[in-house]
Amino acid sequence: MIRIVGGGLAGSEAAWQAARRGVPVSLHEMRPVRSTAVHRTDRLAELVCSNSFRGDSLENAVGLLKEEMRRLGSLVMRVGDETRVPAGGALAVDRERFAAGVTAALEAEPLIAIHREEVQRIPEASAASPVVVATGPLTSPDLAAGLTALVGREQLYFFDAISPIVLADSIDRSRVFRASRRGRRERTKELAVGRTCGAGGEEEGDYLNCPMTPEEYHRFHAALTTAELAELHDFDRTPYFEGCLPIEVMAHRGVDTLRFGPMKPVGLTDPVTGRQPYAVVQLRQDNLAADHFSLVGFQTQLKWPEQRRVLRMIPGLEQAEFVRLGMIHRNTYINAPSLLAPTWQTRARPGLFIAGQVSGVEGYVESAASGLVAGLNAAALARGEEPRAPPRTTALGALAHYVSHADPSHYQPTNIAFGLIPVVAGAPRGRQARRRAVAERALADLAAWRGGDPEASAAAALQTGGAAQ
Ligand SMILES: Cc1cc2nc3c(=O)[nH]c(=O)nc-3n(C[C@H](O)[C@H](O)[C@H](O)COP(=O)(O)OP(=O)(O)OC[C@H]3O[C@@H](n4cnc5c(N)ncnc54)[C@H](O)[C@@H]3O)c2cc1C
User: Fold this and answer.
1) Domain boundary among 314, 330, 346
2) What is the pLDDT of residue 256?
3) Shared-domain flag, residues 64 and 179
4) Pairing mode, if any, of strands 177-179 and 25-29?
5) Is 9 in the pocket of ligand 1 (CB under 6 A)?
């Protein structure tokens, strides 16, 4: 029997993987008995901010990671693919249907028992009864205290902030235009480290664009830099995550910072003027019904009345009704390299696994990916087999290697990136061709790694192509 604490993206995936390999799972999720500052439902695998799983091509590291997960029979990927909404080359999902689909699959799995309760201490773990802690960035305070004791030092925090969502009906369509950026492929750079909170790998797709003239932009910038901020409590001394800065922080850095960030107009032509606007706010469809749109890259910690006032200065959003406003939140994670093996086991207690955001990865897909490997290995351990790390040449293995081998004195949670995967010797010239070679090798090495795994073979047999083609 495996105990899994936390039914988010990592815990849900870990439970699925273990159960599919015949090991009973007891999955403990504290919602709805106790909620977090950002979850809103009692569903497993709830997406708390963006509805995007980012790029879906093999020339994109997170696309490769997703493809590897599909080939290992990932539940998160299966339901993600089933609930996708239009977002160009990115995989974005209908958040309601996604969480409902994952919850239904886990509830229907006979080997999984779901307990709705807060686990306040890290349970005893052994090889016969492994434990996976996957309590996420908003781990409850009691369990966080247990983690602190385990880590043996101060818990680490940093800020993150979430983007607002508006009701589609309340957008003035006469002022916005629908378009994707031109030439995105040539321009998109993959960040070695950093959440692309909202915008990550998703600059193409079906976006509504709110164009601004220089006058509108400067008025907006002035309002942003003078608006009132929400109170920050005990987190004031911790640094922001550079890949996910609040818009007002960017605005304070310089008058043009936003125009080179989430408001960049490059590649967009306003059909009314026939020209590139001075600045643009992009709105991305957030659910299948297309009645919710999120402001891409617009995470903010302004006070809520201030958010309404300032965001309604954006052309097209003058009458906007907000389904959700931006907010600030905590992110709790351990110093992974000093604690974890690439199998996601803790080095000190091999029966104890820590997975998901709290293990020091960054992002929905990376969290689910770590849960997948932790679930596989916890199942192996419970069956008396040796846990195995995925090959370093795969995206799964590269992420595991980073988490377990990065410099612990400067540890920062990471998204997957090609920079973490060893290059292919003698690969063809050109960035795309080199990435393609890395992806082909990764998928071959993954197949060899899971050669004897019937669940992985079945999933591979079901591959219909998608990103793999
Ligand atoms: C506000 C916010 C916005 C984010 N935005 C994005 C984004 O846009 N894109 C992106 O890729 N990533 C984003 N992330 C980062 C990260 O990808 C998500 O947090 C992701 O959900 C992490 O998955 P997880 O499984 O580790 O944690 P979660 O999905 O948070 O799951 C952890 C679960 O554990 C439960 N839990 C906590 N403590 C206990 C306990 N003691 N006992 C039982 N259950 C417990 C929680 O209720 C929760 O359901 C964001 C994170 C936050 C906090």
Assistant:
1) 330
2) 97
3) no
4) unpaired
5) yes
